[in-house]
Amino acid sequence: MPELPEIETVRVQLGRVLMGQVCKDIKILNHKVIKGNLDSIKHKGVKGVERRGKVLLINFGPGLKLGFHFKMTGQLIYEEKGKRVVGGHPTEDFVARMPSGHTRAIFYFSKGTLYFNDQRLFGWVEVNPKFVEKLGPEPFEINETEFIKRLGRLRKPIKVAIMDQEVISGVGNIYANDALWEAKTNPQTPSHKLQGEQLTVLLEKIKLVLSEGIKYGGATAADAKYIDLHGLGGHYQEHFRVYDREGQECRRCKGVIKKFELGGRGTYVCPKCQTG
């Protein structure tokens, strides 16, 4: 699933092609991914492209935002005069004729067409998505005091806690694993057992790995396929600390990286140096 850096990359690139365009019409091919009525954005101009956590938002003016959640296999393909920009889960659809068998909704803009594809139908499209209202603050917004307050009262494992989007939004599996390694913290440690100083360091490391993710255009990994809007894979995977490195040597202490399941997600840890 694309995480904060991946969606941020899509936001920037999609903003370059959609800004100022008017949504002329909408065609829904599968109502399963559509939440509510989308007609309110018709004949409205794009004022900007935003992101909240892992949700992409096209701003059509005050109180009117079209939200996309990619989930596991969602993708956006924008086509204008034979040229394309694409983002999301990479498939042959990026270069195939549109619409494809995976196209769930089509948005006709004044200069081009935006296709929302989703193979597994887990993603969704919604005007003013209520999901966004439930999201916690992003790592770059929250201060140390609030972060400690939110995490210090939870009894769930710290990795599960920082991936809870209502606690803090935008942190997914890749960056949670690497941030915990940076903070020398064991993913299984109950959140409430970490001291304030440890949580302060963890917040710093979350910001560090997310910033790197944005810098390198996101990640392309075996279980987190991502390609940015120009079809160019992100390069954060070249900087993984522990994620997707099972059996390899820890870059810090020469220990061996282990993998196990925690909260239903593959979790990577160096048992030698992540003892906090």
Structure in a nutshell:
With 276 residues, the protein is α+β, with helices and mostly antiparallel strands. It has helices at 4-18, 130-133, 144-152, 158-162, 173-182, 196-215, and strands spanning 23-28, 34-35, 48-52, 55-59, 65-69, 74-80, 83-88, 103-109, 113-118, 124-127, 258-262, 265-269. It has 2 domains: 4-132, N-terminal domain of MutM-like DNA repair proteins, CATH 3.20.190; 136-217 and 236-269, Helicase, Ruva Protein, domain 3 (Orthogonal Bundle), CATH 1.10.8.
Write the layout of secondary structure elements.
Blueprint: H1 4-18, E1 23-28, E2 34-35, E3 48-52, E4 55-59, E5 65-69, E6 74-80, E7 83-88, E8 103-109, E9 113-118, E10 124-127, H2 130-133, H3 144-152, H4 158-162, H5 173-182, H6 196-215, E11 258-262, E12 265-269
Parallel strand pairs: 2-10
Antiparallel strand pairs: 1-8, 3-4, 4-5, 5-10, 6-7, 6-9, 8-9, 11-12
Helix pairs in contact: 1-6, 3-6, 5-6
